[in-house]
Design goal:
This protein is mainly alpha-helical and 181 residues long. The chain has two helices and two strands. The protein has a two-stranded antiparallel sheet with strand order 1-2. It is rod-shaped.
Length: 181
């Protein structure tokens, strides 16, 4: 717009502040507001919804991580308790094995002593039998000797009384102690 001054010269305005400028400014503000509403409905709300969903998902993942960490801590404490109990169980197993080994040792020693006693008893019985056999052999030999003596006596023509006397004397000389030793 051009303004005329008293001298008739034209003067241009610096801002051109007139009705057209105000109308354009108001229309531009309305257009920007409408565009903001349209973008808000079409773009901002879905983006805001996506960001809220993402925030919720991250919050849920953090809660899951805390739950998983708590479960892991619980499992760790249970595992540690089991490890502590394993030492006790191992000691109990070793103690039980030692007790069984001592019982087996005692049983083996008792069995060995019993076997040794049986062997000694058997050896004593064998010795007794051998002694009896030797005594029987000595008796047989005495009988043979007595019969040889008797035979010699008969050859010498000795009577029966003399023969009995000789056998009696021989038996007395040998005595019972000779039979038993």
């Amino acid at each position: 717009m051009i303004l005329l001054t008293e001298a008739g010269a034209e003067m241009t305005r610096m801002f051109n502040l007139d009705f057209q400028l105000v109308a354009d400014s108001v229309l531009s503000i309305i257009a920007i507001f409408v565009l903001f509403l349209v973008f808000s409905l079409l773009l901002f709300n879905p983006v805001r919804k996506m960001l809220n969903d993402r925030k919720k998902r991250i919050h849920d993942e953090i809660a899951d991580a805390h739950t998983t960490k708590a479960e892991a801590d619980e499992l760790k404490s249970q595992y540690q308790a089991k490890l502590d109990n394993i030492d006790k169980e191992a000691e109990e197993i070793l103690s039980d094995a030692r007790k069984r080994a001592l019982a087996n040792e005692t049983q083996i020693v008792a069995d060995a002593k019993e076997e040794a006693a049986r062997i000694l008893a058997h050896a004593r019985n064998e010795a007794e039998l051998e002694k009896q056999k030797a005594m029987d052999d000595v008796k047989k030999e005495m009988v043979v000797l007595a019969s040889l003596i008797a035979e010699k006596v008969v050859y010498a023509q000795i009577d029966t009384t003399v023969q009995d006397k000789l056998v009696e004397e021989t038996l007395k000389e040998m005595g019972k102690s000779t039979w038993q030793s």
